[in-house]
Amino acid sequence: MEQKIFSLLLVYREFKPHLLMVLTQVGYTLIFFITQASFNHGMSPYVYVTYRHVVAGIAMFPFAYFLERSARPKLTFALLVEIFVLSALGISLSINLYFASLKYTSPTFLASMYNTIASLTFIIAVALRFEVIDLRNPRGIAKVLGTLISLAGVMTMTLYKGPIMRNLWGPLIHIQQKSASTHESWLKGSLVTISCCVTTSIGYIMQASTLKRYPAQLSLTTWMCFMGAVQSAVFTIIVEHDNPSAWIIGFNIDLWSILYGGIFVAGLLTYIQLWCTEKKGPVFVTVFNPLSTIFVAILAYFVLGENFYLGSLIGAFIVIMGLYLLLWGKEGDKEIDLKTKQCNSSENQQLEVYASK
Protein backbone atom coordinates (compact mmCIF):
# COMPACT_ATOMS: atom_id res chain seq x y z
CA MET A 1 0.00 0.00 0.00
CA GLU A 2 2.77 2.40 0.95
CA GLN A 3 4.63 1.53 -2.25
CA LYS A 4 1.55 2.40 -4.34
CA ILE A 5 1.15 5.72 -2.54
CA PHE A 6 4.82 6.46 -3.08
CA SER A 7 4.50 5.61 -6.79
CA LEU A 8 1.47 7.89 -7.12
CA LEU A 9 3.37 10.70 -5.44
CA LEU A 10 6.25 10.25 -7.87
CA VAL A 11 3.84 10.34 -10.85
CA TYR A 12 2.14 13.45 -9.41
CA ARG A 13 5.49 15.20 -8.92
CA GLU A 14 6.53 14.31 -12.47
CA PHE A 15 3.33 15.54 -14.12
CA LYS A 16 2.41 18.34 -11.70
CA PRO A 17 3.19 21.13 -14.21
CA HIS A 18 1.10 19.37 -16.88
CA LEU A 19 -1.87 19.00 -14.53
CA LEU A 20 -1.63 22.60 -13.36
CA MET A 21 -1.58 23.92 -16.92
CA VAL A 22 -4.65 21.87 -17.86
CA LEU A 23 -6.48 23.25 -14.80
CA THR A 24 -5.33 26.74 -15.81
CA GLN A 25 -6.98 26.36 -19.20
CA VAL A 26 -10.18 25.23 -17.47
CA GLY A 27 -10.05 28.45 -15.46
CA TYR A 28 -9.61 30.50 -18.63
CA THR A 29 -12.52 28.66 -20.22
CA LEU A 30 -14.87 29.67 -17.41
CA ILE A 31 -13.76 33.32 -17.54
CA PHE A 32 -14.71 33.39 -21.23
CA PHE A 33 -18.39 32.78 -20.45
CA ILE A 34 -18.46 34.95 -17.32
CA THR A 35 -16.92 37.98 -19.03
CA GLN A 36 -19.11 37.46 -22.09
CA ALA A 37 -22.20 37.74 -19.90
CA SER A 38 -20.73 40.78 -18.14
CA PHE A 39 -19.82 42.61 -21.36
CA ASN A 40 -23.24 41.87 -22.79
CA HIS A 41 -24.63 43.40 -19.59
CA GLY A 42 -22.88 46.65 -20.54
CA MET A 43 -19.58 46.58 -18.68
CA SER A 44 -16.56 48.23 -20.34
CA PRO A 45 -13.81 45.66 -21.07
CA TYR A 46 -11.11 48.20 -20.20
CA VAL A 47 -12.68 49.00 -16.83
CA TYR A 48 -12.93 45.26 -16.23
CA VAL A 49 -9.20 44.76 -16.89
CA THR A 50 -8.32 47.57 -14.46
CA TYR A 51 -10.59 46.42 -11.64
CA ARG A 52 -9.71 42.76 -12.00
CA HIS A 53 -5.99 43.43 -11.52
CA VAL A 54 -6.63 45.71 -8.55
CA VAL A 55 -8.54 42.83 -6.95
CA ALA A 56 -5.78 40.38 -7.92
CA GLY A 57 -3.06 42.56 -6.40
CA ILE A 58 -4.97 42.95 -3.13
CA ALA A 59 -5.71 39.22 -2.96
CA MET A 60 -2.10 38.16 -3.65
CA PHE A 61 -0.35 40.76 -1.47
CA PRO A 62 -0.72 39.00 1.94
CA PHE A 63 0.55 35.69 0.56
CA ALA A 64 3.48 37.36 -1.19
CA TYR A 65 4.42 39.45 1.84
CA PHE A 66 4.39 36.69 4.47
CA LEU A 67 5.27 33.54 2.50
CA GLU A 68 8.18 35.05 0.57
CA ARG A 69 9.53 37.42 3.20
CA SER A 70 12.90 35.63 3.43
CA ALA A 71 13.08 34.37 -0.16
CA ARG A 72 12.25 37.65 -1.89
CA PRO A 73 15.31 39.23 -3.59
CA LYS A 74 16.16 42.88 -3.12
CA LEU A 75 14.17 45.03 -5.52
CA THR A 76 16.54 47.35 -7.40
CA PHE A 77 15.52 50.22 -9.67
CA ALA A 78 16.59 48.29 -12.77
CA LEU A 79 14.52 45.28 -11.68
CA LEU A 80 11.53 47.52 -10.93
CA VAL A 81 11.72 48.94 -14.46
CA GLU A 82 11.93 45.41 -15.86
CA ILE A 83 8.81 44.36 -13.94
CA PHE A 84 7.06 47.52 -15.17
CA VAL A 85 7.81 46.57 -18.79
CA LEU A 86 6.78 42.97 -18.12
CA SER A 87 3.47 44.18 -16.66
CA ALA A 88 2.87 46.30 -19.74
CA LEU A 89 3.58 43.40 -22.11
CA GLY A 90 1.88 40.65 -20.12
CA ILE A 91 -1.13 42.54 -18.75
CA SER A 92 -2.07 46.06 -19.79
CA LEU A 93 -1.04 45.95 -23.46
CA SER A 94 -1.80 42.33 -24.32
CA ILE A 95 -5.20 42.07 -22.58
CA ASN A 96 -6.47 45.49 -23.68
CA LEU A 97 -5.32 44.82 -27.25
CA TYR A 98 -7.19 41.51 -27.07
CA PHE A 99 -10.48 43.22 -26.18
CA ALA A 100 -9.85 46.08 -28.63
CA SER A 101 -9.41 43.61 -31.50
CA LEU A 102 -12.91 42.24 -30.81
CA LYS A 103 -14.33 45.57 -31.98
CA TYR A 104 -12.88 45.21 -35.45
CA THR A 105 -12.81 41.46 -36.13
CA SER A 106 -14.85 38.37 -35.33
CA PRO A 107 -14.36 36.15 -32.27
CA THR A 108 -13.51 33.24 -34.61
CA PHE A 109 -10.69 35.18 -36.29
CA LEU A 110 -9.37 36.36 -32.92
CA ALA A 111 -9.43 32.83 -31.48
CA SER A 112 -7.50 31.40 -34.42
CA MET A 113 -4.87 34.13 -34.27
CA TYR A 114 -4.57 34.03 -30.48
CA ASN A 115 -3.83 30.32 -30.55
CA THR A 116 -0.78 30.97 -32.71
CA ILE A 117 0.93 32.38 -29.61
CA ALA A 118 2.47 28.98 -28.86
CA SER A 119 4.13 28.93 -32.28
CA LEU A 120 5.25 32.55 -32.00
CA THR A 121 6.66 31.94 -28.53
CA PHE A 122 8.50 28.85 -29.77
CA ILE A 123 10.08 30.81 -32.64
CA ILE A 124 11.07 33.75 -30.42
CA ALA A 125 12.38 31.41 -27.70
CA VAL A 126 14.55 29.59 -30.23
CA ALA A 127 15.85 32.89 -31.63
CA LEU A 128 16.73 34.13 -28.13
CA ARG A 129 18.14 30.69 -27.14
CA PHE A 130 15.60 30.11 -24.38
CA GLU A 131 14.64 26.92 -26.22
CA VAL A 132 17.07 24.31 -27.50
CA ILE A 133 16.46 22.46 -30.78
CA ASP A 134 18.57 19.55 -31.93
CA LEU A 135 17.23 18.42 -35.30
CA ARG A 136 19.56 15.42 -35.17
CA ASN A 137 17.61 14.22 -32.15
CA PRO A 138 14.08 12.73 -32.57
CA ARG A 139 12.88 14.76 -29.58
CA GLY A 140 14.09 17.97 -31.20
CA ILE A 141 12.21 17.12 -34.38
CA ALA A 142 9.14 16.28 -32.27
CA LYS A 143 9.13 19.78 -30.74
CA VAL A 144 9.09 21.39 -34.18
CA LEU A 145 6.49 19.00 -35.60
CA GLY A 146 4.34 19.25 -32.45
CA THR A 147 4.23 23.05 -32.73
CA LEU A 148 3.29 22.92 -36.42
CA ILE A 149 0.66 20.20 -35.91
CA SER A 150 -0.96 22.10 -33.02
CA LEU A 151 -1.10 25.20 -35.19
CA ALA A 152 -2.67 23.16 -38.01
CA GLY A 153 -5.28 21.82 -35.59
CA VAL A 154 -6.20 25.31 -34.41
CA MET A 155 -6.55 26.53 -38.00
CA THR A 156 -8.69 23.48 -38.83
CA MET A 157 -11.06 24.29 -35.95
CA THR A 158 -11.35 27.85 -37.23
CA LEU A 159 -11.45 27.56 -41.02
CA TYR A 160 -13.21 24.21 -41.54
CA LYS A 161 -16.67 23.71 -40.09
CA GLY A 162 -18.03 20.64 -41.83
CA PRO A 163 -21.36 18.98 -40.92
CA ILE A 164 -23.22 20.23 -37.86
CA MET A 165 -23.41 17.89 -34.86
CA ARG A 166 -26.70 19.18 -33.51
CA ASN A 167 -27.36 19.26 -29.80
CA LEU A 168 -29.97 16.79 -28.58
CA TRP A 169 -31.26 19.10 -25.84
CA GLY A 170 -31.80 22.78 -25.26
CA PRO A 171 -29.31 25.09 -23.53
CA LEU A 172 -28.96 24.69 -19.77
CA ILE A 173 -27.80 28.31 -19.40
CA HIS A 174 -28.93 31.29 -21.48
CA ILE A 175 -26.44 34.09 -22.16
CA GLN A 176 -27.87 37.10 -23.93
CA GLN A 177 -26.01 37.77 -27.16
CA LYS A 178 -25.32 41.23 -28.52
CA SER A 179 -25.81 41.98 -32.17
CA ALA A 180 -22.71 41.90 -34.34
CA SER A 181 -20.62 45.05 -34.31
CA THR A 182 -21.07 47.43 -37.24
CA HIS A 183 -17.59 48.92 -36.76
CA GLU A 184 -15.65 46.03 -38.22
CA SER A 185 -12.43 47.03 -39.96
CA TRP A 186 -10.45 43.94 -40.86
CA LEU A 187 -7.21 45.74 -41.72
CA LYS A 188 -7.13 47.64 -38.44
CA GLY A 189 -8.39 44.60 -36.55
CA SER A 190 -5.76 42.33 -38.07
CA LEU A 191 -2.97 44.72 -37.07
CA VAL A 192 -4.35 45.00 -33.52
CA THR A 193 -4.71 41.21 -33.25
CA ILE A 194 -1.18 40.57 -34.52
CA SER A 195 0.13 43.17 -32.05
CA CYS A 196 -1.74 41.38 -29.26
CA CYS A 197 -0.23 37.98 -30.16
CA VAL A 198 3.32 39.31 -30.53
CA THR A 199 3.07 41.29 -27.29
CA THR A 200 1.77 38.27 -25.39
CA SER A 201 4.51 36.01 -26.79
CA ILE A 202 7.25 38.47 -25.84
CA GLY A 203 5.66 38.76 -22.40
CA TYR A 204 5.93 34.99 -21.86
CA ILE A 205 9.59 35.05 -22.92
CA MET A 206 10.33 38.01 -20.64
CA GLN A 207 8.69 36.18 -17.71
CA ALA A 208 11.28 33.42 -17.99
CA SER A 209 14.07 36.02 -18.06
CA THR A 210 12.72 38.04 -15.11
CA LEU A 211 12.20 34.93 -12.98
CA LYS A 212 15.93 34.23 -13.14
CA ARG A 213 16.62 37.55 -11.39
CA TYR A 214 13.47 37.67 -9.25
CA PRO A 215 12.49 34.04 -8.48
CA ALA A 216 9.68 34.97 -6.07
CA GLN A 217 6.57 34.05 -8.06
CA LEU A 218 4.00 35.34 -5.56
CA SER A 219 5.73 38.70 -5.21
CA LEU A 220 6.25 39.01 -8.94
CA THR A 221 2.57 38.23 -9.54
CA THR A 222 1.56 40.93 -7.04
CA TRP A 223 3.86 43.54 -8.57
CA MET A 224 2.60 42.72 -12.07
CA CYS A 225 -1.03 43.00 -10.99
CA PHE A 226 -0.63 46.39 -9.31
CA MET A 227 1.49 47.84 -12.11
CA GLY A 228 -0.79 46.38 -14.77
CA ALA A 229 -3.81 47.89 -13.00
CA VAL A 230 -2.22 51.37 -12.95
CA GLN A 231 -1.20 51.13 -16.60
CA SER A 232 -4.64 49.86 -17.60
CA ALA A 233 -6.34 52.62 -15.57
CA VAL A 234 -4.44 55.28 -17.54
CA PHE A 235 -5.46 53.59 -20.80
CA THR A 236 -9.10 53.33 -19.63
CA ILE A 237 -9.24 57.01 -18.64
CA ILE A 238 -8.17 57.92 -22.16
CA VAL A 239 -10.60 55.54 -23.90
CA GLU A 240 -13.59 56.13 -21.58
CA HIS A 241 -13.02 59.86 -20.97
CA ASP A 242 -16.56 60.71 -22.13
CA ASN A 243 -18.20 57.89 -20.15
CA PRO A 244 -17.43 58.30 -16.40
CA SER A 245 -20.39 56.07 -15.48
CA ALA A 246 -18.43 53.10 -16.92
CA TRP A 247 -16.47 52.98 -13.66
CA ILE A 248 -19.61 52.31 -11.58
CA ILE A 249 -20.07 48.61 -10.73
CA GLY A 250 -23.27 47.21 -9.29
CA PHE A 251 -23.95 44.08 -7.26
CA ASN A 252 -24.49 41.94 -10.34
CA ILE A 253 -22.66 39.79 -12.89
CA ASP A 254 -20.13 42.63 -13.36
CA LEU A 255 -18.96 42.32 -9.75
CA TRP A 256 -18.75 38.52 -9.88
CA SER A 257 -16.77 38.58 -13.11
CA ILE A 258 -14.29 41.05 -11.55
CA LEU A 259 -13.89 38.95 -8.40
CA TYR A 260 -13.42 35.70 -10.31
CA GLY A 261 -11.18 37.30 -12.90
CA GLY A 262 -9.11 39.04 -10.23
CA ILE A 263 -8.68 36.39 -7.54
CA PHE A 264 -8.54 33.26 -9.65
CA VAL A 265 -7.44 34.29 -13.16
CA ALA A 266 -5.19 37.33 -12.75
CA GLY A 267 -3.98 36.18 -9.33
CA LEU A 268 -3.88 32.41 -8.88
CA LEU A 269 -3.57 31.38 -12.54
CA THR A 270 -0.86 33.97 -13.22
CA TYR A 271 1.10 32.61 -10.27
CA ILE A 272 0.69 29.05 -11.58
CA GLN A 273 1.91 30.11 -15.02
CA LEU A 274 4.96 31.81 -13.52
CA TRP A 275 5.75 28.68 -11.52
CA CYS A 276 5.40 26.47 -14.61
CA THR A 277 7.45 28.93 -16.68
CA GLU A 278 10.30 28.68 -14.18
CA LYS A 279 10.11 24.88 -14.10
CA LYS A 280 9.44 24.12 -17.78
CA GLY A 281 9.98 27.28 -19.80
CA PRO A 282 7.67 29.65 -21.71
CA VAL A 283 7.01 27.31 -24.65
CA PHE A 284 5.66 24.63 -22.31
CA VAL A 285 3.17 27.14 -20.87
CA THR A 286 1.89 28.52 -24.17
CA VAL A 287 1.46 25.14 -25.85
CA PHE A 288 -1.53 24.45 -23.57
CA ASN A 289 -3.42 27.55 -24.83
CA PRO A 290 -5.35 25.68 -27.60
CA LEU A 291 -6.94 23.49 -24.92
CA SER A 292 -9.02 26.48 -23.85
CA THR A 293 -10.50 26.69 -27.36
CA ILE A 294 -11.43 23.01 -27.18
CA PHE A 295 -12.95 23.37 -23.70
CA VAL A 296 -14.97 26.42 -24.79
CA ALA A 297 -16.40 24.54 -27.78
CA ILE A 298 -17.32 21.53 -25.63
CA LEU A 299 -18.89 23.62 -22.86
CA ALA A 300 -20.80 25.74 -25.36
CA TYR A 301 -22.19 22.56 -26.93
CA PHE A 302 -23.27 20.75 -23.77
CA VAL A 303 -24.27 23.72 -21.57
CA LEU A 304 -25.28 26.56 -23.90
CA GLY A 305 -26.76 24.29 -26.59
CA GLU A 306 -24.65 25.76 -29.40
CA ASN A 307 -23.95 23.78 -32.57
CA PHE A 308 -20.77 21.73 -32.67
CA TYR A 309 -19.10 21.19 -36.03
CA LEU A 310 -17.18 18.18 -37.26
CA GLY A 311 -14.26 20.48 -38.08
CA SER A 312 -13.99 21.41 -34.41
CA LEU A 313 -13.80 17.74 -33.44
CA ILE A 314 -11.13 16.99 -36.06
CA GLY A 315 -9.17 20.11 -35.12
CA ALA A 316 -9.29 19.20 -31.43
CA PHE A 317 -7.87 15.75 -32.19
CA ILE A 318 -5.05 17.29 -34.25
CA VAL A 319 -4.26 19.78 -31.47
CA ILE A 320 -3.99 16.98 -28.92
CA MET A 321 -1.64 15.05 -31.23
CA GLY A 322 0.58 18.11 -31.62
CA LEU A 323 0.50 18.78 -27.89
CA TYR A 324 1.58 15.22 -27.14
CA LEU A 325 4.45 15.44 -29.65
CA LEU A 326 5.71 18.74 -28.27
CA LEU A 327 5.52 17.58 -24.66
CA TRP A 328 7.36 14.37 -25.58
CA GLY A 329 10.02 16.46 -27.23
CA LYS A 330 10.22 18.76 -24.20
CA GLU A 331 11.00 15.77 -22.01
CA GLY A 332 14.31 15.54 -23.85
CA ASP A 333 15.30 18.85 -22.24
CA LYS A 334 15.59 16.99 -18.93
CA GLU A 335 18.22 14.68 -20.41
CA ILE A 336 20.17 17.69 -21.72
CA ASP A 337 19.98 19.45 -18.35
CA LEU A 338 21.05 16.27 -16.55
CA LYS A 339 24.03 15.76 -18.85
CA THR A 340 25.01 19.42 -18.43
CA LYS A 341 24.86 19.14 -14.63
CA GLN A 342 26.88 15.93 -14.72
CA CYS A 343 29.53 17.56 -16.93
CA ASN A 344 29.69 20.62 -14.67
CA SER A 345 29.94 18.40 -11.60
CA SER A 346 32.72 16.35 -13.19
CA GLU A 347 34.63 19.51 -14.14
CA ASN A 348 34.25 20.89 -10.61
CA GLN A 349 35.58 17.64 -9.11
CA GLN A 350 38.57 17.71 -11.44
CA LEU A 351 39.29 21.33 -10.48
CA GLU A 352 39.05 20.45 -6.78
CA VAL A 353 41.50 17.54 -7.24
CA TYR A 354 43.86 19.77 -9.20
CA ALA A 355 43.64 22.50 -6.57
CA SER A 356 44.36 20.03 -3.75
CA LYS A 357 47.56 18.96 -5.49
Automatic annotation (TrEMBL):
GO terms for molecular function: transmembrane transporter activity. One of its GO terms (cellular component) is plasma membrane. Residues 18-157, 188-327 form the EamA domain. The keyword Transmembrane helix applies. Keywords: Membrane, Transmembrane, Transmembrane helix. It is found in: Membrane. The keyword Aminoacyl-tRNA synthetase does not apply. It comes from the Eukaryota. The chain crosses the membrane at residues 20-39, 45-67, 79-99, 111-128, 140-160, 186-206, 218-239, 245-271, 283-302, 308-329. It is a multi-pass membrane protein. InterPro entries: EamA_dom (IPR000620), EmrE-like (IPR037185), WAT1-related (IPR030184). Pfam families: EamA (PF00892). Belongs to the drug/metabolite transporter (DMT) superfamily. Plant drug/metabolite exporter (P-DME) (TC 2.A.7.4) family. PANTHER family: WAT1-RELATED PROTEIN. This is WAT1-related protein. It comes from Medicago truncatula (Barrel medic). The lineage of its organism: Eukaryota, Viridiplantae, Streptophyta, Embryophyta, Tracheophyta.
